[in-house]
Specification:
Layout (H helix, E strand, L loop, with lengths): L1 H17 L3 E8 L1 E9 L5 E9 L8 E18 L3 E16 L2 E16 L4 E7 L2 E2 L1 E6 L2 E6 L7 E8 L1
């Protein structure tokens, strides 16, 4: 029975990933994250990122998760031989942390990129600032202050479009 359920789970996963309207890839910059997005019918998309983030107080690695709703603002035909340029903007939430430290905040996103001509690939540079507290806790005490390191969340994203 376990093998059957596992087979069904993998079949559903493969069907979901092979379906149209998905973008899957990675992001590197202030962290290293896996990136997945589902494109809605109007070119807007829901994006999720999960990985590690190192732009924190003390430079320690933290687990990081960001969920965004992005709007396709405009497409520009600056370099027709290379592809179509795009500008997207979005909003969502950013959470993360490590042992005795956590952060949460409202996230924004500004993304400028290129949809490469003849290939199902999007390459972009983005800024995803997060506005919220960083909370250090332990030993029965906690300290909270504005997470100013959340403002320096820059990255380069490369995704494959299904």
């Amino acid at each position: 029975m376990k093998k059957f359920l596992l087979s069904v789970a993998f079949a559903l996963l493969a069907w979901t990933v092979s379906a149209q309207n998905w973008m899957v890839g990675g992001r590197i910059g202030s962290g290293l994250q896996a990136d997945a997005a589902y494109v809605l019918g109007n070119d807007n998309y829901i994006e999720g990122r999960f990985g590690m983030y190192w732009a924190n107080a003390g430079g320690h690695l933290t687990a990081d998760f960001t969920a965004l709703y992005n709007w396709s603002i405009c497409k520009m035909n600056w370099t027709p031989a290379a592809g179509t340029w795009f500008f997207d903007a979005g909003a969502g939430i950013n959470v993360g942390g490590k042992s005795h430290y956590a952060y949460v905040g409202v996230a924004g996103c500004a993304k400028l990129g290129l949809e490469i001509k003849g290939a199902p690939i999007r390459l972009s540079f983005d800024w995803t600032p997060a506005f919220g507290p960083g909370i250090a806790y332990g030993g029965g005490e906690s300290v909270s202050e504005f997470n100013d390191h959340g403002l320096c969340n820059f990255g380069i994203t490369c995704v494959y479009c299904f």
